[in-house]
Amino acid sequence: MINSLKTIAVFGVNFTGNYRYPMAVAFDKAAHEIGVNLVYMNFIGRVGTYGNATFSPERYGDHELDFLDAIDLDRFDGIIFDGDFNNLPNLEDRMTEKLRTAKCPVVSISTYVEGFHNVVFDDIGGFRQVVEHLLDHHHFTKIGFMSGYLTHPDAQGRLKEFQRIMRSRGLPENGAGFFEGDFWFNKGDAAAEYFLSLPERPEAIVCANDYMAISLVSALKQRGIRVPEDIAVTGFDGLADGQNIILPHLTTASRQQDELASSVLRAMIALIDKDTEKFDVTVRSRMIINHSCGCRKVDYRIETGKIDEAYKKNRHFNYHLLDAEAALLRLNKVDDFEKLGDVFRDRAVNFGDYKSFFLMLYTDSEGRISCSSDFDKPTHSFSPVIWIDKNDEYAKPEGCLADGDPLPHSSDERPHTFILTSVHTAESIFGYAAIEMDNDGSSREFYILWLMILSMQLETLQKNDRINRLIESLESKSLSDDLTGAYNRRGFYKMAMETMPDDNTPISTFVIDIDRLKRINDEYGHYEGDASIRAAARIIQSCCDNGEICGRTGGDEFSVFARGLDEEGAQRFIERLREETERYCDKEGKPYSLSMSCGYCTAQAGTHIDEMLKVSDYRMYEQKSKGRE
Predict the structure, then answer these.
(1) Within a domain: residue 483?
(2) Which of 337-370 are b and which e, b meaning 16 or more Cβ less than 10 Å from the residue's Cβ?
(3) How many angstroms separate the Cα of 295 from the Cα of each of 240, 250, 291?
(4) DSSP letter (8 states) at residue 237
(5) Which of 266, 401, 454, 555 has an alpha carbon 20 to 30 Å from 546's alpha carbon atom?
């Protein structure tokens, strides 16, 4: 697996998104310091916005579960499970079910899972610091609370702690007002209307996370309410947007992700080495005091620089969007999956520098890759379709990566960090992509967009292959005789004309007719008659082993076109036809004898084939009238 260093897999959703990205950066940094490989098993999860009724994200996500089934957990020395942000039905359950089969240590870092080693987060302690800061430092007594949706355990725990603190201070347990939010941006306006409609306006509002705090601050400012001068607002989570984009910046609390990553990986190493059987990691939250509570003043000289930086990022985002559009148009012209790698090398420039990128496609039991139309069902074997190794440090397999090994082996003993993502559409699963970035942290959303574009192009190639094969099949049927499989009259003429030489090469035609077929039909039935026609076709085709064209051009009549046969060669062909017919009769032991009459014509290339067939036909009837000799 990669190299001799220990390899830790991290299972979770959307490590490339804004919410999970900082945690991935922290783990990347810790892994390089400690000296272990990290492999992110990155599941895309829900696609599109919540409430989008025109697309079923669950259907798209079903194929991610197929990818989960293909992973061989024995390839990893340890596994970290991040159950946060799992937003697809059954995804968390299927992940935990899969990970329970692992023989290596499994640590859950976001949700408690029975049977795993679990990280303990002191989120309540961090939340308590925020509320007590408003009470003890600012001496607010009229504090409102904006909760997340109350079916979520985090919302329940934070509400319970808020009520406990309020009661302990002799204040109403729901403070100056309670509003149930959604842990997202959608309820800011409704929350602002609620708190401003209360008989007594709150001095401060505690939000259960930063997303809701950001939306509430925006809604209050739109209504002319100054934050923090009129109402202070706090959040929880320590999101980068709350510290850099929104003004005023949020007072909040955050899990110390650097401490989390380092502690979890060091404890994991101890578990792997069996230096300990006890897993004891508690991550405390750190309070971030900023503008929105009134402790700090906005320094507009600093904020102007941040605005400039945000403008720069927005400008680069627009450039990246144009790059994505150009890549989409370029990929749309790709008509062969082998050309996908060239487009990726040339156009994949909008998500950061990378050291290596591998696109691995499933193969079936016959070795066919998943974007071919005759692909059956995936095995645990993958074929590398795109192989970009900028430093030439990975051993490219001659065939497939088999037995669930997701990555090639490296000659470099440095710590490696890969992110693996399923490549699929709502209709088809193709395989997975593996990327190793050349900078700190995991790749970003434009990379996921790239994978989706690649997936759609693979599906297009698959459909095109299916259409082409259907066209070939229909064309073959239009040129073939259903009973014998030989060319029909149209197919015979088409293929004969296509193989007609353009020099003075000798050519020959043969017209062959089954003798006494009516008698066979009358005495033994049409089944035997058809069997005789099929047998005659097999005999004639067995003699056409040097490029000759054979067709059934009538009920019991066959025609043959041969290039390069002169008079002597034509006689040898007829003699061989006689021998093969006698051999068939001796072997089959039918109650009747199969025989055929044959006439031929030889000429120089360029002679009209119809004229030659007329001569052949005339000679065939001459032979038939004289009897076999």
Answers:
(1) no
(2) beebbebbeebbebbbebbbbbbbbbbbeeebbb
(3) 19, 11, 6
(4) S
(5) 555
**CA distances from residue 556 to 76, 354, 440, 514 in whole angstroms, order as listed:** 68, 67, 76, 6
Q: Please state, in angstroms and rounded to a whole number, the distance separating the CA atoms of residues 106 and 86.
A: 18
pLDDT greater at residue 14 or residue 317: 14
Residue 475, in any domain of the structure: no
In this predicted structure, the answer to whether residue 150 has a pLDDT above a threshold of 70 is yes
Distance (Å, whole) CA 591 – CA 595: 13
Say yes or no: 160 and 182 in one domain: yes
Q: How many domains does the chain have?
A: 3
Burial 108-135 (b: 16+ CB within 10 A, else e): bbbbebeebbbbebebeebbbbbbebbb
Which residue segment(s) compose the domain that 517 sits in? Answer: 489-626
Question: Both 154 and 89 in a single domain?
Answer: no
- CATH code of the domain in which 179 resides: 3.40.50.2300
559, part of any domain: yes
CATH code of the domain covering residue 525: 3.30.70.270
Residue-wise pLDDT tens digits, 516-541: 999 999 999 999 999 999 999 999 99
The winner for highest mean pLDDT among 253-257, 395-399, 625-629 is 253-257
- pTM for the complete prediction? 0.73
Domain identity same for 65 and 163: no
